[in-house]
Amino acid sequence: MKLPINREDAVKEWNRFEDYLVRERYAVRDPKAGKPEEKDLNDVLKRISREFSYPGIAKALLNMQFITATPFLMNGGNPHTQRKGYYSCYPLGNVEDSTEAIFNMERDLVTIFQHSGGGGIDVSGIRAKGSPVDNGQGTASGPVSFAKGYSHLSARISQGGKRRGALMIQADWDIKDIKELITFKGDNPGIYTGCNVSINVTSDKFWDDEELIQLIAEYIWKSGDPGLLFTQKSMNNTPVPRKYNPVFSNPCGEYLSTKDTACNLLTVNLQKCLDEKFADFLNNVYENARMAAIAGNEILDMGGFPPIERIKDNTLKFRPIGIGFTGLQHAMNYYDISYADEKDAPEFAKATQLALMLGSMQGSLDYAAFYKQKTGKKLEVREWNLDYTRRIAQEAKEFTAQLPRKATWQKHIKRIFDTVIKQGGLYNSVTTSQAPTGSISQLMRVACTGVEPYFSMIQSRRVKDADGSWKEFTLVPLEFYDYDENKLDWVENQTAHNITPLQQIRLLEACQTFNHTAVSKTINLPASTTVDDIKEMLFIARDSKLKGVTMFRDSSMTGVLSDSAAKAAEKPGIPFSDLPERYGSTFKFSGPASLYVTANKGENDHVREVFINTTKSGSTIHGMCESLGRVISVALQHDYRLVNKIARTLEDISSDSVWSNSAMGRVFSIPAALAKVLDNCAPEINGKEDPAPYEEPSSYSSCPACGKLTLRRSGGCSQCVSCGYSTC
Fold this sequence. Notes:
Layout: H1 7-26, H2 41-49, H3 57-62, E1 66-68, H4 70-75, E2 89-94, H5 99-114, E3 118-122, E4 132-133, E5 138-139, H6 143-156, E6 158-159, E7 163-164, E8 167-172, H7 178-183, E9 196-201, H8 210-223, E10 227-230, H9 231-236, E11 248-249, E12 256-257, E13 265-269, H10 278-302, H11 309-318, E14 322-326, H12 328-334, H13 344-375, E15 382-383, H14 386-402, H15 412-423, E16 425-426, H16 438-443, E17 459-464, E18 470-475, H17 485-492, H18 501-513, E19 523-525, H19 531-542, E20 548-549, E21 551-553, H20 563-570, E22 583-590, E23 594-601, E24 607-614, H21 619-638, H22 643-650, E25 659-661, E26 665-667, H23 670-680, H24 683-686, E27 711-714, E28 717-720
Parallel strand pairs: 2-3, 3-8, 8-9, 9-10, 13-14, 19-21
Antiparallel strand pairs: 1-13, 4-5, 6-7, 10-20, 11-12, 15-16, 17-18, 22-23, 23-24, 25-26, 27-28
Helix pairs in contact: 5-6, 8-19, 10-13, 13-18, 14-15, 22-23
């Protein structure tokens, strides 16, 4: 393939996008004028780097070798904010069974959202619906009624005024109201959008309940919820001792730990670790993880907690830090390893994760020495599960013995683990956690975020500016300009829609092996996935090392109107018929570039919506394709019977290019390709059957912010790849 713009223009687009992100999300603002006081990312990084005292951290931050989580980027060193929330999220544990406790949890969630964080709660302990209350004079409304309220709360209150709230609701599989908890989101699409739902698998008996597993699979197929959390694996495969019950999740599922603690996340930029030799790459991962762990410890000592005493006390008691990475596929491809390779890709990920874990553990040791030097006090050792420690030390030793090229950090494995075992623990309860890293990866110009593959070769971002206007950015990963056409074609075959669900699980399992908490990534499924396929994937996940699993099937979740769109819909004008739940097919045409045409259908199988995307996404072609799709969609929503007239109008348009589809033959323009799709998706008109659709991410759901059909599940969040909108 050929890239649509040259390197110079690609850099300009990234610069524009960075300016937008900094201005709208990260920059300190004048409290009176409301205008940004920081002009670019370098200003933001300089501000936060001044908060650290350990030698080398400021330089590493400015070089973007690692980066802190979004709340610290917004609030660290901010002289104006009165709500210094430094942490991304807080698992709060069980909601107690009393009216006072239920509404106290509401208050705590509001406080957390105000301080730039998300929350996680467990509703297992709330008495079942219909249970007697008031000495038998009434009945309880049950945990799901309160889960709905918590969801609405999360959807309505933004985190630090910059992004909407985020919430995980979990519950044990054997509570009486479990079926209602499984179904309430899927039965009310677009209503309870403020939370993710996960079921705690607390016993092997769960797998004998065929009816429950069937129901879970059906609702995953329908809506993407619920996920499963394997609590026994969580307790057995973490440094946190079982007595502290480390099974509570944050909204995105990467931080499974004890209740009332902050997930203190930092991310190593693998692009900055690349070196000619793979062994040197791993050395760089180790060193940058070491520095990130020291920075995470410094953040803990800065405070930045919401005004909830038990969270501050528990977080300082356990001192959790969560070092992860971003840019995994870029790093793999740099060493000519395909993300889709079923042997080399997991091995690469496992080696990277091990270097990261060892570096973060060494950082914990180094910070303790620095803390004593700085304060004259000893940092207390946090108790570790030594059975886990010995087992993971042995696995690390055996795995590194298989690596073809030795890295210098490997000699530290025995020393680090011997130290932990001798003193009964480390200075942090956990040191690794793999978050989704959406917006912070974009800040560092990493297009393959976290452990995810590239979503597509060219990514379009459509965002709403402060003045209400829409801005569009065409983002091409800058590393692509170092590749020839053959390598670009090779990379294109590894993008998200080419990675099978089983390949995703195996890669996640590799990342989980040397991770103290968990990995946040949704298993993305093609639209053709059946309920039985999902059941099979649940059992595969059970037998893997994963501590939890979330799946999302393309086209399974319909978009909903945002508040502004809802108000616009109330204005008088041309009467539109109500739009029912939509489902769609995407067809690929080959030509001067790759062309994707999506036709979404509503009730009675009528085409109601059309989207046109091409990888030849210069602003003119991209804009014309989008305009054509929008105009036709408006017409079809007004009267679906126009589909034949539209197809006849377009079919004779020709140009100097040829586009072909294996099922529909050749056409001589993009409008003619659209006509072919409309004909094939309207069998009631021409009697043809639909050809097999090409499975492409553009068949994802509609974004409530920009309206594009590019909302996908990423980690535990839904994220729009067009405008950057996120539910987290």
